[in-house]
Amino acid sequence: MTNDALVIFTPSGKRGRFARGTPVLTAARQLGVDLDSVCGGRGICSKCQITPSYGEFPKHGVTVAEGALSDWNAVEERYDRVRGLKSGRRLGCQATVQGDVVIDVPPESQVHRQVVRKAASARPIQMDPATRPFYVEVEEPDMHEPTGDLERIKRALAAQWDIPAIKADVAVLASLQPVLRKGGWKTTLALHKPHDAEVPRLVALWPGLHEGGVFGLAIDLGSTTIAAHLTNLETGQVVASSGIMNPQIRFGEDLMSRVSYAMMNPGGSLEMTRAVREALDALAAEIAREAQIDPALILELVFVCNPVMHHLLLGIDPVELGQAPFALATSDSVSLSARELGLASLPATAQVYVLPCIAGHVGADAAAVALSEEPGKREELSLVVDVGTNAEILLGNTTRVLACSSPTGPAFEGAQISSGQRAAPGAIEAIRIDPETKEPRFRVIGCELWSNEPGFAEATAATGITGICGSGIIEAVAEMRIAGLLDRSGLIGSAEQTGTERCQAEGRTHAYLVHDGSAEGGPRITVTQGDIRAIQLAKSALYAGARLLMDEMGVDKVDRVVLAGAFGAHISPLHAMVLGMIPDVPLDQVTSAGNAAGTGARIALCNVGARAEVERLVRQITKVETAIEPRFQEHFVAANAIPHASDPFPELSQLVQLPDVSFNAGGDRQGGRRRRR
Amino acid sequence: MTNDALVIFTPSGKRGRFARGTPVLTAARQLGVDLDSVCGGRGICSKCQITPSYGEFPKHGVTVAEGALSDWNAVEERYDRVRGLKSGRRLGCQATVQGDVVIDVPPESQVHRQVVRKAASARPIQMDPATRPFYVEVEEPDMHEPTGDLERIKRALAAQWDIPAIKADVAVLASLQPVLRKGGWKTTLALHKPHDAEVPRLVALWPGLHEGGVFGLAIDLGSTTIAAHLTNLETGQVVASSGIMNPQIRFGEDLMSRVSYAMMNPGGSLEMTRAVREALDALAAEIAREAQIDPALILELVFVCNPVMHHLLLGIDPVELGQAPFALATSDSVSLSARELGLASLPATAQVYVLPCIAGHVGADAAAVALSEEPGKREELSLVVDVGTNAEILLGNTTRVLACSSPTGPAFEGAQISSGQRAAPGAIEAIRIDPETKEPRFRVIGCELWSNEPGFAEATAATGITGICGSGIIEAVAEMRIAGLLDRSGLIGSAEQTGTERCQAEGRTHAYLVHDGSAEGGPRITVTQGDIRAIQLAKSALYAGARLLMDEMGVDKVDRVVLAGAFGAHISPLHAMVLGMIPDVPLDQVTSAGNAAGTGARIALCNVGARAEVERLVRQITKVETAIEPRFQEHFVAANAIPHASDPFPELSQLVQLPDVSFNAGGDRQGGRRRRR
C-alpha cells in the first residue's frame, strides 16, 4: 500500500494523488477544483462542504472503502451540533484523505456555481462576483513593531490568502480599528477586484466571521421606470426586486424631451441628475428594507440604461445626444463609487459599474441585451428587439452582430393612444375579434377570464375596465385587420363597409368600439384612426430599424426573433407578425426574453468576467445609425401597410388569412408619413 | 559633407547625430534630453525654448557655424511678435538641425528643473510633479464611427503622447464635452500619474492650450497651526503661503487632550474631523484668492502631520493613539481625492497624498523631516530635532536612521509659562543678562533694537512689551544660568544669594524680573521658578529622546544637530546647549532647517519620486518607542540639571563658563520629577 491516495472530484472530474492526511480542501485547491471557503480552512465558515461517495466506480476505475476519509473530528461534531450538517456531508477543511476516494462538490459549495435563468433557452449565470468575503486572523499590534492595523491586515491576506496587495478606501479606514478589536483580531474582509485592475480594493469589513452575506443591485434604469434586483453575491439569488417610476418624467416623458429640458433650462441637467440619484437612493433603501437586509451589505451596483439616462445618471449634460453627430461623452464602461453618485443610503465604498454604450442612440441597455441574449454565439441569425420608447435592435450570428436604435415612441407602451394606459390591473391586455360577427372579447390584467366568459363582470368589478395597455393595442389592431375592420393601408372601415355598428364615425374617420362602460360610469374604450396611425408609426420605425440591419447583413429573412423588454414578454408573436412589427418567421421561432437588459445587468453583477465580455462585445458590434441612413426612411414608408408591403409572409399566411379589403373611399386626412425622432 | 549633423545638448552633455532637418525637440526626445513641451511640438506652448551656441567648442570637439539651425520660421516670428522670445532663444520644435550644433537647454525649459531651497546645506528640489498638462488635438465625432469623446481623447493621447491608457474621474466627464467643443477639439489635459500606479488619471481639462498653470498645495497640518504653500507644479515656485490656527484647538490644546475629547464625547472625533476639513477648505480658497489663482487649478494636495492629526484628517477616530500599543489605523501613505475629504472649494478630482507615518507617535511630519533633511544620506551622524508640542527626533547616518517622538509639551512654544506668549510682535524673543550687574537687555519681535539702545521705547511703543515667546524663554533660562541667577538644579537664587533685587521672592521660591511695564499699564514680565521647572521638563523630555536614540545607536556624541520646526529657526544654538536641550557639539555644527516638515511636504508635492522615496525611508527607519523604554525615564531624570548632568560639555565650556552656584538652602517644593505625556 502506497502512502498516497487517489482523490477524484465530481462533477469536475479533476483527480490527483495526495499524501494520506491531506485535508480535502487542500487537495481541491491544489487541483484547482471549485470549492468555496471564506474562512480559509479554519472550520468555521462551512462553505467547503463536500459529499464523499463510497463503493465501486468502474467509470473512475476506483473502489472507495469506508474510512477513505478521516472520522468526524471535534470541529465537525460541534458544527453539526450547533448548525446541523446535511446527511452525508463533511467539512472539506476538516476531513482528510485516508484512501482512494470520490468526492462530490455540491453546487452550493462551488464559488462559481450556476444560477439557472427562467427562459429555457438561456444559459445559466455562472457566479464569479467581483466582490468576495475573505476571513483572516490578524496579528495584534505591538509597540516594538509599530505597523498600522491595515498593514497587518495586508500581511494576513498575503499569508493566508496569497493576495499580495490591496488598496483600502478611506471610508473603510474609519471602521478598521473598532472592527478588528471587536472581532478579537479576526475579521471578514470584502474585497472588490474589478475585471480591469490587478489590485483588489478593501470595501468593507466585519468583526469575526461575517455570515450576513454580501449583496449587489442590478439596476435597469429606464426612461420611465427604474427596476432593481437585490442579489446575493455569493449564491446569485435575487432576494428582492423593486421598481419605481423614474422621477425625471416630470421633466419630459421621453428622452428627447428631457434633452430639450436640459437645453432650455440652465442647471436643468443637474436637476434631473439629482432627481434620479435621489430616487435611486430611496429605491436602494426601500429594497434593502423589503429584503430585511442591512443596506451596508450592498457593496456593488450595476447599471444598464440608454445613453441619455447614462449621461444623466453620471451628471453629464446630455445635450450632445440631442443633435448630430450624437456624440457620447464616453462610450466605455464607467466604474465609480456610491459616494461619487451621492447614494447616501449605501456604503460610500460600494462599487458601481455602468455597462458600456454601443453608440449615441444605442446604450448600455442594448449592450446588456447583447450580453444576455448572445446573438453572436448562435449559428442561426437572431433578431433581438427590445421594445420600449426607443427600440434597441440587434441582428446577428456567429459571424457578425449589428445594432441600431429606432425611435418607436411610446405608443407600444400605451401612451399616445386614445384609450391607452400603462400595464396595470383593469387594462385590456388581450383581445380577439370574431371575423364573422366582428364582436370583440378581451381579457384584462388581474383576471384570467375572457370578457365573454361567465363571472367576468364580477371578477373585474373591483378594478373596472380602464383602458388598453401596450400588448392589448397591438392585438386590437392586428385583430381588426384579421376581422376585416381595417384595410392594408390602416384605414378603419365605416359601419356600412364592415357590417358592424361598432365601427362608428368620429369626425372624418372611424373608430372601433371595444367596450362601452359608460352606463356603469366607466370609460368608452375605442380604437380610433389616430390610434392606428400611432401604432403604424411605431411599428414602421421598429420594422425599418430591423430591415436596415438586415440590409446591412445582406439578408432578407431571419431565423428567429427574440422579443425583449418588460413589455416584450406580453406581446403575442402572431399579432406582432400580423401587424408587421417583426419579419416573417415560424411562430415557434419567436421567443420572449423578458427583461433582457435587466438580466444583462444581473449577469454583469454576478460575473465579473461578463464585464470584460460585454466590453469586448460592444467593440465588435457594428452600429448602424438610423438617423442618417436614407434607406431607413424608405423602409419606414414601405412598412406603413399592415402587414408591411415589402416582404412576403409565407409563415404568417399558413396561420391566418388576411382579408383583401380597401376602405379608401373615406378620406384619410391624417396621413401616415410623419416621422418621430 | 555627410547628410547628418552632430547635436550636443548642454548642460546634460547628451549628444547624437541626426539627419539635417530634424527638429531640435525631436532630437532632444530621442536622446532623452530633459526638454519640456506641453503642446507636443506644435509651436504654441513655447515650453521648449533652447539657445544655440556658435563658435568653437574644443571641449566638445566641434565648431558651430552660423546656419547650424534653420532660419526663424513663421511660427517663431509670430510667437516673437505676440509674446516676445528672449534674445538668442529658439523654439525647439520649430528650429531644425542644419549642421553640427551645441544647444543649451535653459533651466526654465527643463521639465525636471531644480528649485533652490533657502538653507545652503539643502539639496535643491528636483521638479517631477505627478500632475502634468498635455495638449492634444482630438478627432471630431462622426456618426459613422460612434466612439465617445473620451475614447477619442484616449486615442489622441496614445498617438500624440504615447500614453496608452488613462482613467477618467466621473467629475471630469461632466466637463469633457463643452470643453472639447469650446476649444475646437483642441484641449489641454491634466494627467495625474501616481508613483504607485501605471495608468494616469485625467483630473482636469481646458479648452485649447491652457497657459494658466497647474498648482498644488503642500500642507503642514500641525496641532496648533496649519500652514499651506501654494506651489506652481510646473516651475516649483511657491506663489503664496498662508497659515491659520487649527480650529481643533477648541477641543483641546495638545494632541492627547484631543484624543481624550474623542474618547469622552460620542461623535467627538467626527466633530474634530469636520472642523479641520472646513478650515482646510477655507484655507485653500483663501490662499488661491491671495495668489489670484482660480481654485480649479489646484489639482494636488500633499499633507504632512502627526499621527493624531493624520487620523482626524482622514476621519479615523484617534482613540487607539491614546493608549498602548498606540496602533495606527494605517501607517502607509494614503492617496485619495479632495472629494473624499469634502474640500468643496477645490476640484473634486484634486488628488491628495498623505505621507506615511513612522509609528503611533512618530508621524508623517517626522517622515517629511527625514525626506527634507536626509540624515540617512550623510556620513556624519546627524541629530534632527523638530521642536513642537511633541518633538520628533531623528538620529542617523548612511548606516542607519532612528526616530522617536518625545512629549515636550507646549512650554517651548511659550505656553504654560507665566509670562509666555506665542511668537508675535511685542514678545521678547532674545535676552542677555550681564553677569556682573545681573541686569537684562532684550529684543522684542517687530523691533531690531536691544532694550538698552536709544530709540527702543519709541520703536516698541506701538506693540508694547507683552510677554516672552519660546526662543525668549530658552534664552532667559540659559542666561540666568550663565549669570549665576540659577543653579545647576534649576533653582533661582534669592536677592541676597544673587546680589540683585530683580530676584524677588514669590511664595517660597523666587522669580527674576525681566521687565516691569506696570507704570505704563503694561505687564510685569518675570521668569518664575515654575517657568524654570516647565522648561526643565520640556528640555529633559527632548534630551532624553535624543539620548535614547544615541543609546540605540551605541554612540555618546553626535556630529551635527539640525533644529527644525517653525520655532527651531529662532533658537540660539548656544543657549539651547547651555540649557541642555541638545547634546554638546561644535556650535557651527548646529544648523536650523526652518520648517523641515513643510519642506518635506513641498518636496513630495513637486517630485512624485520623492513619495516612493519617503515610503522607502519610513520602512528603513528604526522606530524607538519612548513610552515603554525604561531608559527614557532614567535619561529624563538625569537631564533635569542645567545643563544636564549625564554628558560632558567640552565644546560648550570653550564658549562660556557656567558658575558653580547652589541655592539649595531655599526649599524647592515643586519637585522636578513630574512626567507629562
Word description of this protein:
The structure is a homodimer of 677-residue chains. With 677 residues, chain A is α/β, with parallel strands linked by helices. Chain A folds into five domains: 4-109, Ubiquitin-like (UB roll) (Roll), CATH 3.10.20; 130-207, Ubiquitin-like (UB roll), CATH 3.10.20; 215-354, Nucleotidyltransferase, domain 5; 374-410 and 535-653, Nucleotidyltransferase, domain 5; 413-526, no CATH class. In chain A, the strands form eight sheets. A six-stranded mixed beta sheet of chain A has the order 16-15-14-17-19-18, with helices on both faces. A six-stranded mixed beta sheet of chain A has the order 30-29-20-21-22-31, with helices on both faces. In chain A, helix 15 (596-606) crosses helix 16 (608-620). Chain A is elongated and about 95 Å long. The model of chain A is unreliable at 666-677 (pLDDT under 50). At the A-B interface, helix 3 and helix 4 of A face helix 3 and helix 4 of B.
